[in-house]
Amino acid sequence: MTMKASASIYKPAMPYMAMVFMRFGSAGLPIVAKYALNKGMSQHVLVVYRFAIATLVLAPFAIVFDRKVRPKMTLSVFVQIVLLSLLEPVIDQNLYYTGMKYTTATVATALCNVLPAFVFLLAWVCRLEKVNMRKLHCQAKILGTIGTIGGAMIMTIVNGPILPLPWTKVNHQHQSTNIAATTKEDPLKGAFMILVGCVCWACFVILQAITLKSYPAELSLTTLICLMGTIEGAIVALVMEKGNAAAWSIHWDSKLLAAVYSGIICSGVAYYVGAMVIQAKGPVFFAAFNPLTMVIVAIMSSFIFSEIMYLGRVIGAIVIVLGLYLVLWGKSKDQLSSDSNAAPSSGEQMAATSETAGTSNQDFVLLDVSRVAAADESVEENQKQIP
Considering only CA atoms, which of 383, 351, 384 is closest in space to residue 370? Predict the structure, then answer.
């Protein structure tokens, strides 16, 4: 098999592989962060350290690899970066960690699965996602989105009988301790904070897809978002932790682990991979993989911590996988139909070639979200290609 043939096979599969690996990395965050928060770490300080570390890690790569493709910074792009850093690094992350303090890591992970529904609706409104109720693949995307959310709710609410797995051991005393601990928390308040944060997260995904059209340098954009998020998050932390200098102290313990892990894996790598996947496949494709985090957390917890596995969680995981398959199937059919209906002219082929060359340093070729641009934009691009 030649290198050209191998590239033709692996290139279409890379967005799928990237999202699966990214979700495996994200699955460790709820456990690590919850442990650090229980040890007394401030959630506002954790946000600052997280994005400061992500900025330091990503900045050298952005300077080196994006030096030839980085476009000029404009006022509109800078405003969008400020809004992006405010939506996800500041508002969403502060609400997420605060809500996690009032609930558990499992509940916080489960509630984040409303993201595909929010992103789908916002993408529909912003015309980043085409929906035709008469077409089967559009119906599949809607049913798949509902299925992922329904499966997440089943995993959270329905327990059912305990599955006698050989590597788990039921500890009734540990269960009673957990029940007693959860009664001191405020699940409703925590759930509300996490859901509001998910709305901000969905807005972030949609705005990022729009920003990538005018600033198609994923690594540089990710670094700038983390940098602005660090500055804005520091202002919030200084206000919320006023007079509490001890909140900023950090040692070689779980607090440092939470900051480094969340900064490198969940902010730096995840934001960069997310930007590339959004540019290649669109925001709904990116959001559809979010429920996999909860499934991975449930499986890893069962093996590593010998946590009890309930039948309801298994059923919920199956429903999530089926819903995810429907969304991905609908997206693939939607992309095939858009390709067959494009019938590009010579000028459009020149514009597509120019657009592909602008992102040639990445492993992804097409910009899916750009296909929803208006017809007059394509005419303007064709005119620009004429010497």
Answer: 351
